[in-house]
Amino acid sequence: MFKYKTGDEVLITAGKEKGKKSKIERVLPSENKLVITGINIYKRHKKATRNEKAGIFEVVRPVSVANVQVICPKCTKPSRVGFVTRDSIKNRVCKKCKGVLK
Ligand SMILES: [Zn+2]
């Protein structure tokens, strides 16, 4: 089970987008990375090829999970995510308020 889920609100804690808040668009568990809406967009200039026109393309780069914190919807604070097993069901919980995250 991965600590991060699509749709989680996160705070960027490092890198060029530090301090920004956005939502997880995609999770890449095998790389420990997250694609976050509007974060870490790089512009790529491309030359024209036979099939494509030249132009500037925006490329979204995944952000390492080490550089984000999930914002808990219950206590609205950036917090760490832990797991609690109750009735043999594993839940994600906020380590600050112990609230269960979806
Ligand atoms: Zn919380």
From TrEMBL:
SUPFAM superfamilies: Translation proteins SH3-like domain. Residues 39-100 form the Large ribosomal subunit protein uL24 C-terminal domain. One of its GO terms (cellular component) is ribonucleoprotein complex. GO terms for molecular function: rRNA binding; structural constituent of ribosome. Keywords: Ribonucleoprotein, Ribosomal protein, RNA-binding, rRNA-binding. Residues 7-36 form the KOW domain. InterPro entries: KOW, Rib_uL2_dom2, Ribosomal_uL24, Ribosomal_uL24_C, Ribosomal_uL24_KOW, Translation_prot_SH3-like_sf. The keyword rRNA-binding applies. The keyword RNA-binding applies. It holds the Pfam family KOW. GO terms for biological process: translation. It comes from the Bacteria. Signal peptide: none annotated. Belongs to the universal ribosomal protein uL24 family. One of two assembly initiator proteins, it binds directly to the 5'-end of the 23S rRNA, where it nucleates assembly of the 50S subunit. One of the proteins that surrounds the polypeptide exit tunnel on the outside of the subunit. HAMAP family: Ribosomal_uL24_B (MF_01326_B). NCBIfam families: rplX_bact. Part of the 50S ribosomal subunit. This is Large ribosomal subunit protein uL24. It comes from Candidatus Curtissbacteria bacterium RIFCSPHIGHO2_02_FULL_40_16b. The lineage of its organism: Bacteria, Candidatus Curtissiibacteriota.
